[in-house]
Amino acid sequence: MTFKVLGTNHTSFTVSNLDRTVGFFRGCLGFELVSKAPRDPALVSRITGVEGADMVVAFLKAPGHTIELIEYRAPAGKGAVKARPCDTGFAHLAFNVDDAAAAVEAAERYGVKPVAPPVAIDQGPNKGRRVVYVRDWDGVTLEFIEAVPKSASGKILRRELKAKS
Questions:
Q1: pLDDT tens, position by position, 110-159
Q2: What is the pTM of this model?
Q3: What does each C-alpha distance from 69 to 21, 56, 80 come to in angstroms?
């Protein structure tokens, strides 16, 4: 049997405080809240394999993508992931932005902190762009990738990579 991937449906993060995280994604990133509701615990347990699972789920519409945020109300013995980017299984979500420094400044107003200042990329598909990782209170990591500036005619403006890094 063969199958074909038709597209991406969503990216999901489990969070400790759904209202706080939804507030960040809406207020800081400008995403639209599409839905927020509890799910049937028996069905959630069957899907996830987590006995006694009880959750509330929010879906937010981002430019070209959907984000799912989940807050588990049960089971009681939940843990927290403390992964570093070098740890197997670590994940992050990257957004193209017009200004990485401004994105960091906005995120900090919500308590989301940069891992380091924006850095200019000197090779690969993002060459000439500045990137920065930010991490929230739950360890959810986002990457802001700054667009390469273009002139009014659409030509890429060459800039000194060290100038803004």
A1: 999 999 999 999 999 999 999 999 999 999 999 999 998 765 555 555 44
A2: 0.87
A3: 8, 8, 15
Q: For residues 138 and 69, is the Cβ–Cβ distance under 8 A?
A: no
Q: Report residue 9: phi and psi, to 5°.
A: -90, -50
pLDDT at 155: 54
Which of the 8 DSSP states describes residue 158? P
Residue from 64, 122, 128, 72 nearest 93 by CA: 64
Q: What is the mean pLDDT of residues 23-29?
A: 98
Quick check: bond before 75 cis, omega within 30?
yes
Would you say residue 81 has pLDDT above 50? yes
Task: Say if strands 141-146 and 130-135 run parallel, antiparallel, or are unpaired.
Answer: antiparallel
Structure tokens at 145: 């990738």
Beta strands in 15-53, from DSSP E residues, in sequence order: 32-38
Q: How far apart are CA 157 and CA 26, in angstroms?
A: 32
CA angle (17 as vertex; 11, 18 as ends), nearest 5: 50
Domains of the chain: 1-78 (3.10.180.10), 80-165 (3.10.180.10)
